[in-house]
Amino acid sequence: MQEFNTFNPSTLTQTITGFVFYAVIILITFFGFSTVFVLIKNGRSRALSFAVAVLYLVFFLTIAAQGVGILNSI
Amino acid sequence: MNIKKLFPGQQEDEEIILVVREHWFFMFTRVIAWLLFVMVLFLFDKYAPQYIPRLFEAPYLNFINLGKNIYVMFLILGLFMLWTIYYLNVQIITNKRIVDIWQKGIFSQRISELTLPNVEDVTSEVRGFWSTVLGYGNVEVQTAGEKENFIFQNIPEPREVEKLIINQTGHYHGPPGNE
């Protein structure tokens, strides 16, 4: 079973990079989740809206997790 | 189809005749533009190591990978938002009115309604090479009084939509030529 990466900064470079990375993640999460909300709220077909939203979230969470992994190796 | 969800103000005896949205060609052009941004990533991976080899050595490599990771997240978000805005932009023609739902952005939506008795004239326009080949164009619905005209831009089969609106308004104005 794969473990989730957690970020524990140990150097100043890691701290600054981590801060920038998480600021970007928060921004993308805000727009991403807002889009999911608007799509599901206003979409004609609820099933299609859910399917597309889930697809987006899977991609987003996978790449974000990869980013945390990279952040740890800095 | 969950029609009430699509059209919240729908009356009980109101029947949806047609739901149109922008022609797929316009979504396709946006996807092509999006693919250009994807290509930037591939070109960077292909050519950057040749011209800036130091960037691909420690300790810079991890920063480059993190930058690419963030770029990919923006790309996926961009495609998701493009599709959502395309999908939520619809025009609905019912047996009582025309509804134009214009999703300008994620946080901006405008809904305009026009009752069929207020329709004065309907004009369809197909202009240009791609419009003619792919069969899309504009339909302008002129309204009575000082109300703003309805313009359906770049919809598929504009002539069919024009005929449909004229047929529907005929129930209120009488057959064409009787006015």
Element string of chain A (H = helix, E = strand)? HH
Separation of the first and last Cα atoms of chain A: 24 Å
Q: How does the major sheet of chain A shape up?
A: none
User: Which percent band covers the strand fraction of chain A?
Assistant: under 5%
Number of domains of chain A: 1
What structural class is derived from the secondary structure elements of chain A?
A: mainly alpha
**What is the gyration radius of chain B calculated from CA atoms?**
23 Å
Q: What proportion strand of chain B? A: 25-35%
The overall pLDDT average of chain A reads 87
The quaternary structure here is heterodimer
Number of strands of chain B: 7
Largest sheet of chain B: 4 strands, antiparallel
Number of helices of chain B: 5
- Which spans of chain B of ≥5 residues are poorly predicted at pLDDT below 50? none
Query: Do you know the CATH architecture of the largest domain in chain B?
Result: Roll
- Topology of chain B as a string of helices (H) and strands (E): HEHHEEEEHEEH
Q: How would you describe the shape of chain B?
A: elongated
Question: Can you count the helices of chain A?
Answer: 2
Radius of gyration of chain A, whole Å: 15 Å
- Give the overall shape of chain A, derived from the CA principal axes: elongated
Structural class of chain B: alpha+beta
